[in-house]
């Protein structure tokens, strides 16, 4: 027999359950990212000390993809291209792309080696500020040429903008010039959401306007309270701890052709690079769009 106290308690729980159930209904139409990656520059110190061990930890954290870069040991971390691919795959990591450096070896050779691993992209990480907008037009021509080389080898060429392409030169934004003067059939872009936001532009507007041009991205967050201008690492923070609405932004990105999402933190608040990688992996695993 249910007494008055039990009845009141159960009635109260039921009253709470009804609105909660109604609020959760839209979640049936929401999804999570199946795969997400990390730019290895984020854990560069650990990679330098122990490449196999670090890749093992990244796999355990839940990362399924990696983007390499050309550090002191090259984009394959002192191994052959095939050895590095096997090491990554053995830890549940798919080598999607790498930032390259021209001083390592001729670009065509780098493209050939990347293609042998099944890598999807070679990415230009840096061109630096330019004195005239015409310089950016020449860079666009160079990107088209490199795009042809990559296409010949069965992969894609991409460009990763930092902050400078979002700063006006001769009355124009270099990022717009680069997008408008590169061939979509040959050149893709890797948006860094952090720089787009901190330079005062709208990443969603770019995704919508330049559909299927931004195929990859770097993800970190922006502090609610911005640090003073000139701070070495500016106002970066771990995902979910800042102002960027990533659930909404990634939905827009996916709708406009983005395929690869790489975490890349540059500022560490009382944590190591690997600890930050863990925090960001947890965010990505639990991100609901």
Structure, described:
Residues 107-266 form the Xylose isomerase-like TIM barrel domain. One of its GO terms (molecular function) is isomerase activity. This is Sugar phosphate isomerase/epimerase. The protein has 289 residues and is an alpha/beta fold. It has one domain: Divalent-metal-dependent TIM barrel enzymes (TIM Barrel, Alpha-Beta Barrel), CATH 3.20.20.150. 42% of the residues lie in helices and 14% in strands. The chain has helices at 4-24, 44-49, 51-61, 81-90, 107-116, 133-152, 174-181, 193-198, 203-209, 246-255, 273-285, and strands at residues 37-39, 65-68, 94-99, 121-124, 156-159, 187-192, 214-219, 221-222, 236-237, 260-263. The strands form two sheets. It has an eight-stranded parallel barrel, surrounded by four helices. Strands 8-9 form a two-stranded antiparallel ribbon. Strand 4 (121-124), helix 6 (133-152) and strand 5 form a beta-alpha-beta unit. The longest helix is centred in the first third of the chain and has 21 residues, at 4-24.
């Amino acid at each position: 027999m249910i007494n008055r106290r039990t009845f009141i308690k159960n009635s109260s729980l039921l009253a709470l359950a009804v609105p909660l159930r109604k609020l959760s209904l839209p979640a049936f139409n929401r999804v999570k990212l199946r795969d997400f990656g990390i730019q290895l520059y984020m854990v560069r110190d650990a990679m330098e000390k122990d490449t196999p061990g670090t890749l093992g930890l990244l796999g355990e954290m839940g990362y399924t993809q990696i983007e390499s870069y050309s550090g002191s040991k090259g984009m394959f971390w002192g191994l052959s291209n095939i050895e590095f691919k096997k090491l990554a795959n053995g830890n549940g990591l798919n080598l999607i792309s790498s930032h390259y450096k021209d001083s390592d070896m001729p670009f065509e050779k780098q493209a050939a080696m990347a293609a042998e691993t099944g890598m999807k992209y070679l990415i230009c990480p840096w061109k630096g500020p330019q004195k005239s907008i015409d310089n950016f037009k020449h860079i666009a021509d160079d990107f088209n040429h490199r795009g042809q080389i990559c296409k010949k080898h069965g992969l894609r060429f991409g460009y990763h903008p930092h902050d400078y392409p979002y700063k006006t030169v001769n009355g124009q934004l270099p990022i717009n010039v680069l997008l408008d003067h590169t061939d979509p059939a040959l050149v893709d872009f890797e948006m860094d959401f952090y720089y787009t936001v901190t330079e005062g532009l709208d990443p969603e507007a770019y995704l919508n306007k330049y559909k299927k041009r931004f195929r990859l991205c770097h993800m970190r967050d922006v502090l609610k309270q911005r640090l003073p201008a000139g701070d070495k690492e500016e106002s970066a923070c771990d995902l979910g701890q800042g102002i960027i609405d990533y659930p909404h932004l990634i939905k827009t990105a996916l709708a406009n052709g983005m395929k690869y999402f790489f975490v890349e933190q540059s500022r560490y608040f009382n944590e190591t690079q690997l600890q930050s990688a863990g925090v960001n992996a947890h965010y990505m695993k639990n991100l609901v769009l």
